[in-house]
Amino acid sequence: MAERKENSTNNVNRKCIVDGNDLSYAIAMVGGRWKLLILINLEKEKLRFSEIRKAMPNITERMLTLQLRELENDGLICRTVYAEVPPKVEYELTEIATELIPIWKKLCDWGARHRKTRV
User: Fold this and answer.
1) pLDDT tens-digit profile of 103-117?
2) Considering just the CA atoms, what is the radius of gyration of the chain in Å?
3) Contact, 100 vs 77, CB < 8 A?
4) So where are the chain's domains?
5) Of 3.40.50.1980, 3.30.1370.60, 1.10.238.10, 1.10.10.10, which CATH number belongs to 33-118?
6) How far is CA 6 from the centre of its chain?
7) Strand partners, 69
8) pLDDT digits over 39-55, tens only?
9) Locate the HTH hxlR-type domain: which residues (predicted)?
10) Sheet harboring 47-48: ordered strands across?
């Protein structure tokens, strides 16, 4: 895997967010269109790449790969590679990510209530 360049625009922006307030940090960790949905799919069990992809048919393979790498680098998921042929790789939530479960459940409840008022 390529090393991150310390002075790249993305890393400079990320450092500003991480060094900012706690809310900015939290949003940076789970923000974006896909990260929270990936975490939610891993709530109940370990999944392989293809199983996550099947559960999220609108995400491209490239985007799923990128998001899984970011989540792993941020310590929210654990990637386990098994020494088998063909290779077997599973993803699961880390302990720190499981702390988000009640938060995303509250967000789901909020979304259900809010969506009803918008229709």
Assistant:
1) 999 999 999 989 878
2) 16
3) no
4) 1-30, 33-118
5) 1.10.10.10
6) 22
7) none
8) 999 999 999 999 999 99
9) 16-119
10) 47-48, 88-93, 77-82
